[in-house]
Amino acid sequence: MKPLIIGIAGGTGSGKTTLVDRLLEQFGDDISVLPHDNYYAAHHDLSLEQRQTLNYDHPASFDTDRMIQDLQALRAGKTIHCPVYDYAIHDRTEETRELKPNKVILVEGILIFENKTLRDLMDIKLFVDTDADVRILRRIVRDVKERGRSLDSVVEQYLATVKPMHEQFVEPSKRYADLIVPEGGKNSVALMMIIQRIAYHIEHGDVVAEQ
């Protein structure tokens, strides 16, 4: 069965992960997740202080070419070894994570629609749209509680790079979406539509329903 590849994009703190989690709860082992964040470029030659000053919200901060190769391999039915990124040290680790081909592959990240070659691999493109004030509050809570960042560093990074990069790259990429989902996984109507589409693919494979 050819996998159904679904891209889930949106700004930081928009609710992408919540949507992914809802789909995993529904379909479990039939879904594999490929996060763009895992493909941040390695910076082993830089000190922690130097890595902390980098712009992680620009497309150039990702090794998207490797992600494209891995996604092509998954689509061809091959197992890949996905990089692992450590937010605490702002760098890629030496570890990899084995990811096997599956019926459905979710590609998740803020900038996955910015690269044409990457987005052309996706069968369905979803953009999770949430107000900026809600997104920054969620990012602060996440980065302080889960990633060990200080409040000052989160706010400084948001103003210096996250906000301007969102306006320059993320928001414009919304025009490539097949479906814009306000509030992500909390949008029960959109969630049900997505679930029904995935369920149809899992049951019928490559057969497309009559319009």
Structural write-up:
Strands 2-5-1-6-7 form a 5-stranded parallel β-sheet, sandwiched between helices. A two-stranded antiparallel ribbon has the order 3-4. It has a single domain (4-204), classed as Rossmann fold. The radius of gyration is 17 Å and the shape is globular. By secondary structure, the chain is of the alpha/beta class. Helix 5 (132-146) packs across helix 6. The longest helix has 20 residues, at 151-170. It has helices at residues 16-27, 48-52, 64-75, 116-119, 132-146, 151-170, 188-204; strands at residues 4-10, 31-35, 80-86, 91-99, 104-108, 124-129, 179-182. It has 7 helices and 7 strands.
Distance, first to last CA: 22 Å
Q: Into how many domains do the coordinates divide?
A: 1
Give unreliable regions as ranges. Answer: none
* Helix content percent band: 40-55%
The outline comes out as globular
What would the average pLDDT be, to the nearest integer? Answer: 91
Content-based structural category? alpha/beta
Which fold does the CATH topology refer to?
Rossmann fold
> In what range is the share of β-strand residues?
15-25%
Brief rundown of the structure:
It catalyses: cytidine + ATP = CMP + ADP + H(+); uridine + ATP = UMP + ADP + H(+). The chain has seven helices and seven strands, in the order βαβααβββαβααβα. With 211 residues, the protein is an alpha/beta fold.
